[in-house]
């Protein structure tokens, strides 16, 4: 499986939000999307998981334009874990995860025991089996996040798209979730705010600023103090993490006069 976003541009209310973005995710690769608030990360992801149609360019999975596929066919290839309200109806956890099988079902292809087993497997994989009978609305933010990840896994996607998967998670569950994401072996494109987590868990990063990719490559090469200063407007001191051996950035505020201008669209 290979995702290739080619010259993707997205306009909202006549404002360019994503401009000429090229992104690839190779088989089994975990690719991070980082950038300041409002830089267009979620909008770009929506173009990829087929919720917001790009105004120009294409997002292709194995050469298929995701926008040329039916919604159901696209959902068999791409699963998204996004920040979403629970909705009005109180489904239980198992029902929520079962929804991940709906792209495969139809009047001619009703749910089978194999589908139910996939639901169980997905719940087990994220450690949410003890929550299976609970009402989704009664879960904590972190529990909800894990159940939504289980739903995405039940979809058996070729590509996982995650928008801030560590949102709401305590520090242990942040590490566990990203560790799980890596172990899944599924090609993944994930927006992450925490640059140190992005560096620790992603094979490659794309840095978005004002809707454009301003840097890309392995985290160690991309997250230089210069780039962090220019794009995020903070100082960064790199060091080697004493346990993991990965590059770790310590941040500090820059004096107001030294703040660099944000990249213009
Ligand atoms: N439906 C919408 N209507 C109007 N403006 C929108 C809409 N969706 C996104 N935008 C604007 O597009 C810009 C990019 O938003 P987006 O959510 O893609 O950024 P982001 O990088 O994911 O931000 P954050 O890190 O804060 O989640 C923002 O200025 C936002 O206000």
TrEMBL record:
GO MF annotation, one: ATP hydrolysis activity
SUPFAM superfamilies in UniProt: P-loop containing nucleoside triphosphate hydrolases
UniProt keyword annotation of Cell membrane present: no
Keyword vocabulary terms for this entry: ATP-binding, Nucleotide-binding, Transport
Gene source species: Verrucosispora sioxanthis
InterPro entries: AAA+_ATPase, ABC_transporter-like_ATP-bd, ABC_transporter-like_CS, P-loop_NTPase
Name under which the protein is recorded: ABC transporter ATP-binding protein
Domain ABC transporter, chain residue ranges per copy: 3-235
Keyword Transmembrane helix: no
């Amino acid at each position: 499986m290979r995702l290739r976003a080619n010259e993707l541009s997205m306009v909202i209310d006549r404002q360019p939000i994503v401009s000429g973005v090229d992104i690839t995710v190779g088989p089994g690769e975990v690719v991070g999307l980082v950038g300041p608030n409002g830089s267009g990360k979620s909008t770009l992801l929506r173009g990829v998981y087929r919720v917001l149609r790009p105004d120009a360019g294409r997002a292709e999975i194995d050469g298929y334009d995701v926008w040329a596929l039916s919604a159901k066919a696209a959902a068999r290839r791409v699963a998204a874990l996004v920040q979403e309200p629970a909705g009005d109806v109180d489904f239980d956890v198992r029902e929520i995860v079962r929804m991940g099988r709906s792209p495969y079902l139809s009047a001619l292809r009703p749910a089978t025991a194999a589908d139910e087993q996939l639901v169980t497997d997905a719940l087990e994989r994220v450690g949410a089996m003890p929550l299976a009978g609970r009402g989704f609305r009664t879960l904590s933010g972190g529990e909800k996040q894990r159940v939504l990840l289980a739903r995405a896994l039940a979809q058996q996607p070729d590509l996982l798209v995650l928008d801030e998967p560590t949102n709401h998670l305590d520090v242990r569950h942040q590490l566990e979730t990203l560790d799980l994401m890596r172990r899944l072996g599924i090609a993944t494109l994930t927006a992450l705010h925490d640059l140190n987590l992005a560096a620790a868990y992603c094979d490659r990063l794309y840095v978005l600023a004002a809707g454009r990719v301003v840097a890309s490559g392995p985290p160690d090469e991309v997250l230089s103090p210069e780039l962090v200063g220019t794009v995020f407007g903070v100082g960064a001191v790199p060091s080697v993490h004493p346990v993991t051996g990965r590059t770790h950035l310590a941040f500090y505020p820059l004096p107001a006069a030294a703040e660099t201008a944000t990249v213009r669209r």
